[in-house]
Design a protein that fits this description.
The complex is a heterotrimer of chains A (76), B (377) and C (140). By secondary structure, chain B is an alpha/beta fold. Chain B is 32% helix and 26% strand. The termini of chain C are far apart.
Chain lengths: 76, 377, 140
C-alpha cells in the first residue's frame, strides 16, 4: 500500500482545510490515500460529510492534541 | 549580489520596488544588481475584472505600464523565463538569454484551467480574464429571463469572489428592473455557502433576503453545453439560461514544465517563504503551495516580508521576520456597502457589519493600489 | 431627589446639543452627497499626489535647489529677477525695432546696460560651468 500524502492545513482559515483537501484530491490518483491535518473544530464533521457525499472513503478520523488527522482514500 | 525577480504582478512588483528602496545605496555602489523578468509590459489590477463584468469599469482602466510602476534602478525586461536551472542558479528566457542570480524571487502567479471540467470553457461565462469579463457583461445586458447559475471550481484565486459575484448579480438585475424574471442559483463545493465560516454565517440570511437560491456540496463534474445543464459529482444537476463559472486554477505552465511543483504550486515554507530545498529561492503570491488564500493582499504581505528579509540578509547576514499568514480582503456586499475579512495563521476572521464608508475605502483602494505596488503604501 | 442619574446629555446646555445635531446633519449630508465617482477621483488625485511627492523628495538636485532657494541672498536674486522681468516686459515692446547692421551692433555694445547684462550672464555661466566640472570630477 502506498504512503499517505500529508495535507497540512493546520492554522489556516481561508481557503481552509476542506478546500485544501479537495485541491489535493483532484491531483491524486484513484486508490491514493491522503491524510488531512486540521486545527479547525468543524473538520471532524465537515470533512466526512464531503467525502461521503462525493463518494470517496474515510479510512480513519481522530483528534490528537487538538489536531484532526483524517485519512481518506480516493475511490473514483 | 544579483537579485532576480521572475513575475511582474502584485507580489513581484512590490518585492522589486521595496528592495530598490531598501538597497538604494548598495545598488548605486554597484554591490547589488536588481533585475525583473516578466511575460508582459503591462500590469493588470485583477480585482477590477469583476467591475468590468458589471460594466462599472472599462478594460483600459485595468492596466498601467509595468515600467512606469518600477523604481529606475530596476533592470526590467519583458522576456519570460522558459527554463529554470535552480541547481546552477540560473534561468534561460524565451529570447535565449541566460540570467544568473544569487537570490531568486518566484512570483509567477496562477492561471485558470476551465478545460479541466468538460464543457466549462465552451459553456460558461467567467470574469477571470479581460476578454471573458467583457463577454460576460454583454451577456448580462442581453439576458431577459431564466436561471443564472453560478458554479465554483477548486482551487481558485480570490476566495470571496463567488459571494461578491452573486450580490453583484442581484444588484445588477434589480437595476435593470428584471430581478423578478431572473432566478439566481449559487452552487458551492463544500457543506456551507462559503469556506470562511464567518462569511457563510453572515451571508446565509442575506441570500434568503435577496432571494438567491443555493445548493451546497455541489462539485462541478461537467457542463452539458447543448442542453444547458450543469452537473455535479454528487449526481445533481441544474438547468441554466446563463452559467457563470469561477474556474479551477493551476500555477503557470512554466512551473509545471520545469517540475518545480505539482499543479504549478511551488512547495514553500509557510513562515520563511523560501522554496523547500532552496534557501536562496523565495516564493510569493499565487504560485506558492501554501494553504493561504490566493489573493493580492496575501501576495502584498508576503512580498513585504521577503523584501525585508532579503535586504537584511544582504546588510546584516540574517533574515529578520517571518510571514504570519496575514490576509486582508474587502468584501463588497452590494448596494454600496462593504466589509472586510482580516486573519492570519493565529487569528480567525472577525467580520464587521457592512457599511458605506467601507465601500468607499474599497473604491479608494482601487486607486491606491497603484501607489501601493510602487512600495509607497 | 432625582429618581434617575443625570446623563451627560441631559446636563448639556441646549445650544451645544443643537450644534451637535447640526454637525451630525452635516455629516449625513456629506455621506449622502458622496458618490463612488467622488471617492474614486479624490483617492486617485491623492495617490498620484503621493507618488509625485515621493519622486520629488527623492530627487537630490531638486532638494538641493530648495535649500539654496531658501537662502537670503538667493531671495535677493529671485526678487531682482522678477522685477527685471517686469521692467523688461514694459521696455521691450515700447522700444523701436533694431535697424540691423554693424552700426546698430556697435551702438548696443557701447550701452552700459548691455555691458551689465553681459557681465551678469558671464558670471552666472562661469559658476555654472565650474560647478558642473566639480561634480563630474567627484564622480556624479
Amino acid at each position: 500500500m502506498s504512503d499517505s500524502k500529508i495535507v497540512d492545513a493546520r492554522d489556516t482559515f481561508c481557503p481552509g482545510p476542506l478546500m485544501e483537501l479537495i485541491t489535493h484530491m483532484k491531483r491524486s490518483n484513484v486508490g491514493d490515500t491522503l491524510e488531512l491535518l486540521s486545527t479547525d473544530e468543524g473538520s471532524g464533521a465537515d470533512v466526512p460529510e464531503w467525502v461521503n457525499k462525493v463518494g470517496h472513503e474515510i479510512i480513519s478520523n481522530e483528534k490528537i492534541d487538538g489536531v484532526w488527522h483524517i485519512k481518506i482514500r480516493k475511490a473514483k | 549580489m544579483r537579485i532576480l525577480v521572475v513575475g511582474g504582478g502584485t507580489g513581484g512588483t512590490i518585492v522589486a520596488n521595496n528592495l530598490a528602496r531598501r538597497l538604494s545605496a548598495e545598488i548605486r555602489a554597484r554591490k547589488v544588481r536588481l533585475t525583473m523578468l516578466s511575460a508582459s509590459d503591462k500590469h493588470m489590477y485583477q480585482p477590477g475584472l469583476l467591475y468590468v463584468a458589471f460594466g462599472q469599469m472599462t478594460p483600459d482602466q485595468l492596466y498601467r505600464d509595468q515600467a512606469s510602476l518600477l523604481e529606475g534602478s530596476i533592470d526590467f525586461h519583458v522576456d519570460p523565463v522558459e527554463q529554470f536551472h535552480l541547481d546552477q542558479n540560473k534561468v534561460i528566457t524565451k529570447s535565449g538569454k541566460t540570467y544568473e542570480y544569487d537570490i531568486l524571487v518566484m512570483a509567477t502567479g496562477s492561471r485558470i484551467v476551465p478545460e479541466e471540467i468538460p464543457g466549462m470553457a465552451e459553456g460558461a461565462e467567467t470574469f477571470y480574464t479581460e476578454a471573458s469579463a467583457v463577454k460576460m457583461f454583454k451577456r448580462l445586458r442581453e439576458i431577459q429571463e431564466g436561471t443564472v447559475a453560478v458554479v465554483v471550481g477548486v482551487p481558485h484565486k480570490c476566495p470571496i469572489a463567488p459571494v461578491e459575484l452573486v450580490f453583484g448579480l442581484h444588484d445588477y438585475f434589480k437595476a435593470r428592473g428584471i430581478r423578478d424574471k431572473i432566478k439566481i442559483k449559487y452552487h458551492y463545493p463544500i457543506g456551507r455557502i462559503h469556506t470562511i465560516k464567518e462569511v457563510a454565517i453572515w451571508a446565509e440570511p442575506e441570500f434568503k433576503r435577496m432571494g438567491i437560491e443555493y445548493e451546497t456540496l455541489f462539485n462541478v463534474s461537467e457542463v452539458d453545453v447543448e442542453n444547458k445543464v450543469v452537473r455535479s459529482e454528487e449526481g445533481t444537476e441544474t438547468p441554466y439560461e446563463m452559467l457563470i463559472a469561477i474556474p479551477p486554477h493551476r500555477g503557470m505552465e512554466v512551473i509545471e514544465q520545469n517540475n518545480l511543483g505539482e499543479g504549478g504550486w511551488i512547495p514553500t515554507d509557510r513562515f520563511k517563504l523560501t522554496m523547500n530545498g532552496h534557501d536562496n529561492v523565495y516564493v510569493v503570491g499565487d504560485t506558492t503551495n501554501l494553504p493561504v488564500s490566493k489573493t493580492g493582499s496575501a501576495a502584498h504581505f508576503e512580498a513585504e516580508v521577503v523584501s525585508e528579509n532579503i535586504a537584511s540578509i544582504i546588510k546584516i547576514g540574517t533574515p529578520v521576520r517571518d510571514y504570519d499568514g496575514k490576509v486582508y480582503c474587502f468584501i463588497e456586499t452590494g448596494h454600496d456597502s462593504a466589509t472586510y475579512a482580516m486573519f492570519n495563521y493565529q487569528n480567525p476572521p472577525d467580520l464587521k457589519p457592512p457599511s458605506k464608508p467601507m465601500h468607499w475605502f474599497k473604491m479608494a483602494y482601487n486607486q491606491m493600489y497603484w501607489t501601493s505596488v510602487r512600495g509607497l503604501l | 431627589m432625582t429618581t434617575q442619574t443625570e446623563t451627560p446629555l441631559d446636563a448639556m446646555p441646549n445650544e451645544d446639543l443643537q450644534r451637535l445635531v447640526e454637525f451630525a446633519q452635516l455629516v449625513t449630508a456629506g455621506r449622502d452627497a458622496m458618490s463612488d465617482e467622488i471617492v474614486t477621483r479624490l483617492a486617485g488625485a491623492m495617490s498620484e499626489g503621493l507618488t509625485l511627492l515621493d519622486r520629488l523628495t527623492r530627487n537630490e538636485g531638486l532638494m538641493h535647489l530648495l535649500k539654496v532657494l531658501d537662502r537670503q541672498d538667493t531671495q535677493h536674486l529671485l526678487i531682482a529677477l522678477s522685477e527685471a522681468i517686469h521692467a523688461a516686459s514694459q521696455e521691450i515692446p515700447a522700444a523701436p525695432p533694431a535697424t540691423g547692421g554693424l552700426g546698430c551692433m556697435l551702438r548696443v555694445a557701447r550701452d552700459p546696460g548691455t555691458q551689465e547684462g553681459l557681465r551678469l550672464l558671464s558670471v552666472f555661466g562661469k559658476h555654472l560651468s565650474h560647478s558642473m566640472r566639480e561634480q563630474h570630477r567627484r564622480g556624479g
